[in-house]
Design goal:
There is one protein chain. This protein is mostly beta strands and 329 residues long. Helices cover 8% and strands 40% of the residues. Strands 1, 2, 3, 4, 5 and 6 form a six-stranded antiparallel beta sheet that branches. The chain has a four-stranded antiparallel beta sheet with strand order 7-8-9-10, with no helix packed on it. The longest helix is centred in the N-terminal third of the chain and has 25 residues. The N and C termini lie far apart (54 Å). 40% of the residues are buried. The structure holds beta-L-arabinofuranose.
Length: 329
């Protein structure tokens, strides 16, 4: 065979090899992906999932959750966080465990409490609460991870919660990136705090402030979103928790209390909401204790229902359903 023919044959063989690997990759889900369909609420029934946060990117909704232990627990026991994705709200993929509390060497508390993931500058940042060890941030190049501690120390600690005395005050981070590109972090238990994040997403920029307004019965789980130019602060109030909300024309307030958004979520003391719009539909994502009767508050399950606005931009009270949301086309 002359050299030209040899090179041609080698080129075709390489192309065929690449094609074969590519085809195998597309056909297999990989050993570590788990595909399932949701049949109403709770949407995930093979594991206990809590404290949802969601992020929408192109045609995919990414769902990040905490991971409760099975029934009969006497307190919140969570050691890792989980990640799921969907393109139609019915068919879901679960990825390998992307982040564990043990990935934060400084988190002596060992509690993988509520978290929030956002994307910025082609990286994904996972803000986690650890109960009394503070709020940390992990980073990855891909939404599904794996993630690595970005700082090697907490981003925020109890010292930053200047008006709080209890050990679990520095929890439940919620990130909001405004239309002008400024990223904000909100967090707290009992008292609600907020601050700017620097462009690098791993440093606080300037002063930490506390939110307060008439009617603000804040327990935990702040979440900020924007709709039609209005800012919405949703949060857990009371205990057992309902989700309440306030509105403002600015991300820094002043806030006006608007009422209850979601009632106590059956069989769970906590409720922890996330609000996102996906393919034109606003969704209210939360957890309840519906799967197992001896699990209740400590073996929770993520649910999704629709969120609706009134004409004046206020929110209609959420109707929690067992049917859940419809499959998207
Ligand atoms: O999952 C532990 C804690 O329970 C979260 O940090 C709170 O929001 C509540 O859901």
């Amino acid at each position: 065979m002359n050299l030209r023919i040899k090179n041609l044959v080698r080129g075709i063989a390489t192309l065929l090899g690449v094609f074969a690997v590519f085809t195998a990759y597309c056909q297999s889900d990989g050993d570590n992906l788990y595909n399932f369909e949701s049949n109403g609420n709770p949407i995930i029934t093979h594991k206990y999932t809590a404290d949802p946060a969601a992020w929408v990117e192109r045609d995919t909704l990414w769902l990040y959750t905490g991971h409760d232990f099975a029934g009969g627990q006497k307190g919140y026991k969570l050691k890792d966080w989980l990640v799921f994705s969907t393109t139609d709200m019915k068919n879901w993929t679960e990825y390998p465990v992307p982040l564990k509390i043990s990935d934060f060497s400084w988190a002596k508390s060992g509690d993988a409490y509520a978290a929030h993931v956002v994307a910025r500058n082609e990286k994904y940042y996972w803000y986690v609460s650890t109960n009394w060890s503070g709020i940390g941030v992990a980073v990855s190049d891909r939404p599904e991870g794996p993630y690595k501690d970005a700082l090697g120390k907490p981003l925020l600690t109890n010292d930053d919660c200047f008006d709080s005395q209890h050990s679990w005050a520095c929890i439940d981070p919620a990130i909001f990136i405004d239309d002008d590109g400024q990223a904000w972090i909100f967090w707290g238990n009992g008292q609600c705090y907020y601050a700017k994040l620097k462009e690098n997403m791993i440093e606080i920029d300037g002063e930490i402030k506390r939110i307060n307004f008439e009617g603000f019965g804040f327990t935990e789980a702040p979440w900020i979103h924007k709709h039609n130019g209005k800012y919405y602060l949703t949060y857990a109030s009371g205990f057992p928790e309902k989700i309440s909300y306030a509105m403002s024309d600015n991300v820094t307030g002043p806030w006006e209390y608007k009422g209850i958004l979601n009632e106590i979520a059956g069989n769970s003391n906590t409720n922890h909401q996330a609000i996102v719009e996906f393919k034109g539909n606003p969704y209210f994502i939360y957890h309840n204790g519906a799967i197992q009767t001896d699990g209740s508050s400590y073996s929770r399950s993520v649910c999704i229902d629709r969120l609706y606005y009134n004409e004046d931009n206020t929110l209609k009270r959420v109707q929690m359903t067992t049917e859940g949301v419809q499959k998207l086309k």
